[in-house]
Write a structure and sequence with these properties.
α1 links the parallel β1 (4-13) and β2. The protein is an alpha+beta fold. The chain contains 18 helices and 22 strands. Residues 13-19, 36-39, 44-46, 48-52, 158, 236-237, 270-272, 297, 299, 301-303, 305, 326, 344, 502-503, 531-532, 546-550, 552 line the site of flavin-adenine dinucleotide.
Length: 572
């Protein structure tokens, strides 16, 4: 088919939170913007996420912190980031993030459909100097019908995280679902929620409300539509057009054939990083390269195209981060493919009555620590072996109450997970050890020791439950330590947990305006990167809930503003 040509001021590649934010910011500044998306649906991994963003000192969080009599301020944030980022970061990018973050939240709320709520969610090291508990925001639930004809193309949340097709919208709702088997109040909330959901399915054939990542993308997309920004789906960018060293456009493959899009102010790469680029993953994830299994929960569209195109145009790929991935302990659900077959262990492992052990039967970490810490500890613990995995083990009380992995709490039946081999069950710990090929003596000794810790409330080995973040993830009805509970009541259950990730942290080198930089530090004219296409501003650290989408949106906002302020000729 012959190549056609079209023009715009700024071309944005990708429809995650980063791409849509860049497009909106630039359009609001008067640029003619065009968005291309490789998949048939928009929203990327962002749509499947929890939709939380970490933006310290935004106006909602500051207000909440004052009301709670724990006022936050930038000085404290800087102290905290100095602790978290250490020598890995770049000060001018960190400064840009801190200044532009609160600005971006106000801009989006003032000018678009995007609205946030403050959350009380501890920083992942809230006990560290400058740590706090109110720096994260979540997109306000959105009415699905507001997207009109664009609704069916919105990527939905990961099906395994839904309950009978219903997305859990808030931490309170999550608690109600977990407690439904033991509290009439929680059961009432769940039944009301489900009744509303089934009514919506009957009338609208889907949930009437978008929550979490879908609410964020839904609100951003409504704003894109209101601004009249064209968004081409099923149109992957295949290469950049570079003339005289300047990026001036993109080659795109569409259903109607190849199109050359010329973009006078340049191009924003927002392709979501390289989690689905096996070659680059193997080159950068050492345990994976050594043969260990790895599973990703990211969108299949995150093939690393942005990083590859950026490099081809002269940009540098930065692996000088403390962690190259945004790690997540995962389990693999048999017979389900891609991200739909990967369960992110975000809720169960922190709860009382669960421990994680390697094949020697020993614990290796604080199970209640953040996912970004759990996986590096698992990798270290398995260094000597061929495989990288552990077993998450819970007794009947814990599994009944919290579920385990994709297995839901009582009274939802677990038989099919036993049949598929996902869930292991045994009447005694010794039998469970046999089924899972865990050292029997090792497991017995670990559980005896751990049960003693649960009694005293002090985990002498890993300090589990001693930190604010741990306790937030625990069960506040359990004392003396909300994260520790004895494993004593059979049957016992286990799920195999592996190393996985929810995105990549290594990426293109960029500056404080999100311009892609060459290895010598000079900007590649006309080229920006945002979201997971740029290397982590935190140098690989994960300071708090929303530490990827937050900076992703902030640097997209900065890219949009810079492109609008630049001229098409300038060497900027
Ligand atoms: C279950 C889960 C929960 C999470 N919760 C959170 C959370 O609460 N907070 C947080 O900060 N992070 C969270 N994350 C991580 C977060 O979702 C991602 O890091 C983030 O969404 C990445 O955003 P992005 O805009 O860079 O990319 P994406 O949202 O993945 O968007 C990239 C888009 O670019 C498209 N694309 C790729 N290549 C091309 C091409 N060649 N041409 C055109 N289009 C292309 C892709 O198809 C995709 O649609 C979570 C992840 C998961 C899986």
């Amino acid at each position: 088919m012959p190549t056609t040509t079209t023009e715009c001021d700024l071309l944005v590649i990708g429809t995650g939170a980063a791409g849509l934010t860049a497009a909106i910011t630039a359009a609001k500044s008067g640029l003619e913007v065009l968005i291309v998306e490789g998949e048939a649906e928009y929203g990327g991994t962002t749509a499947t996420s929890a939709g939380v963003i970490w933006i310290p000192c935004n106006h909602h969080s500051l207000k909440l912190s004052v009301t709670a009599d724990k006022p936050d301020n930038m000085e404290e944030v800087r102290r905290y980031l100095a602790h978290e980022v250490s020598d890995w970061g770049n000060q001018s990018r960190l400064d840009a993030f801190l200044t532009a973050g609160p600005e971006m939240v106000r801009f989006l709320e003032r000018e678009t459909e995007v609205k946030f709520n403050a959350m009380e969610y501890p920083d992942y090291h809230a006990d560290a100097p400058g740590g706090h508990t109110m720096r994260s925001l979540i997109a306000v639930t959105y009415q699905a019908s507001k997207l009109g004809p664009a609704l069916p193309q919105l990527r939905s949340q990961l099906p395994q995280t839904l309950f009978l097709g219903l997305a859990i919208g808030s931490t309170l709702e999550m608690k109600a679902f977990m407690n439904a088997g033991r509290s009439f109040k929680s059961l009432g909330i769940v039944l009301r929620k489900l009744a509303g959901h089934f009514r919506d399915l009957l009338i609208y054939r889907r949930s009437k409300h978008l929550v979490r990542g879908c609410a964020l993308i839904g609100r951003l997309m409504r704003s894109v539509l209101d601004l009249g920004i064209p968004c081409w789906l099923s149109s992957p960018a295949t290469g950049l057009i570079v003339s005289d060293g300047r990026v001036t456009g993109v080659h795109v493959q569409t259903g109607e054939g190849p199109v050359e899009i010329h973009a006078a102010r340049g191009v924003v790469l927002a392709c979501g990083g390289y989690a689905r680029d096996e070659a680059r993953r193997l080159a950068t994830y050492p345990y994976h390269a050594a043969g260990a299994f790895h599973a990703s929960t990211t969108s299949l569209g995150n093939r690393g195209d942005g990083v590859r195109m950026g490099e081809q145009a002269g940009g540098a790929f930065d692996v000088k981060v403390s962690q190259v991935g945004i790690w997540m302990p995962v389990s693999v659900i048999p017979d389900r493919k891609g991200p739909n077959g990967v369960w992110p262990h975000l809720v169960d492992r922190q709860k009382p009555g669960f421990i994680a052990v390697t094949s020697n039967g020993k614990r290796f970490t604080n199970e209640s620590a953040s996912y970004h810490e759990f996986v590096p500890d698992l990798v270290r613990a398995c260094e000597a072996g061929k495989e990288t995995y552990c077993w998450l083990i819970g007794d009947s009380r814990a599994v009944r109450h919290w579920g385990i992995g994709v297995v839901r709490p009582w009274p939802v039946p677990s038989r099919r997970h036993l049949r598929s081999g996902y869930l292991k069950r045994a009447d005694s710990l010794a039998e469970l050890a046999h089924i899972c090929s865990i050292d029997r003596g090792g497991l017995a000794a670990t559980v005896t020791r751990f049960n003693r810790f649960a009694g005293t409330g002090v985990d002498e080995d890993f300090g589990r439950g001693s930190l604010i973040y741990d306790r937030y993830q625990g069960d506040d009805e359990v004392s003396p330590n909300p994260c520790l509970g004895k494993l004593e009541k059979g049957p016992f259950f286990a799920v195999k947990v592996l190393a996985g990730e929810i995105g990549t942290y290594a990426g293109l080198t960029t500056d404080e305006h999100s311009r892609v930089l060459a290895a010598n530090g000079s900007p590649v004219p006309g080229l920006y990167a945002a979201g997971n296409d740029q290397a982590s501003v935190f140098g690989g650290a994960y300071p708090g809930a929303g530490a990827t989408i937050g900076p992703g949106m902030v640097f997209a906002y900065l890219a949009g503003r810079h492109a609008a302020a630049s001229s098409s000729q300038a060497d900027d």
